[in-house]
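Let us begin with a simple case.
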Amino acid sequence: MSIDALRDQIPDYAKDIRLNLGSLSTETVLSDQQKWGCFLASALAGGNADVIKAVAAETEGKLSPEAATAAKSAAAIMAMNNVYYRSLHLMSEQTYATLPAKLRMNVLGNPGVEKVDFELWSIAVSAINGCGMCLDSHEKVVRKAGLSTEQVQAAIRIGAVVKAASAVLDGEAALN
């Protein structure tokens, strides 16, 4: 399956999602590694099997094995970190934010690809998971590394559309 095959699965009531998948797949403000890593990390964060399979198939040959592994790692580590740090942010008791996390996060220091790309993928996943603390933290890193606001926005847009595709297909599966 590919992005085009995925688009064909999106029903007419979600035509905007279908159109956005197409336009984002041809986005040029990001490098191919940045773009397709965002797609893969976002698909994994979205959790729909059909979306994951379609995006994984699309990224074959577009991402090196190392970049594909790093995108998967971004989805995995942010699944944990987004819950943890979002909880700290939401709790009124500030003492928790002063405590060490005591969670292993070694992949953040050595993601296997350019750190800026991994951080960008972490932004896309953090947007999906709704963690403002993580969004702020990773956005500062990529901006300091030279990425533009348009590039950050593109990553967030990819996350938003891929998550929407997952939600639409999950909803359709529940209805059938």
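The second case is a distinct protein. As before, the sequence precedes its structure tokens.
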Amino acid sequence: MAKDLKPLLEGMSGGATMANVNKSKFSSIKVVVPSELMISQFNSFVATQIDQIEQLARMNLQLTQARDLLLPRLMNGEVTI
């Protein structure tokens, strides 16, 4: 995980006041790159969830717009419940 890299990056930093990792030190960090097959399988697995998140975000936007339109009218008594 990325948070596990913090001690490594802090150990590489040269700045006393502010941690600073230069390009050559940063490029020496080894990372695991998943295979194309694993990336494809992951994308297939999460595609439905991503679609649902996008749909819910659109619905939230529509609900926010409806609230912003109706709430002032409700507060002014133009609309009754």
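Residues 1-31 form one domain. The helical segments are 6-12, 23-27, 36-76.
Keep these points in mind for the review questions at the end of the chapter.
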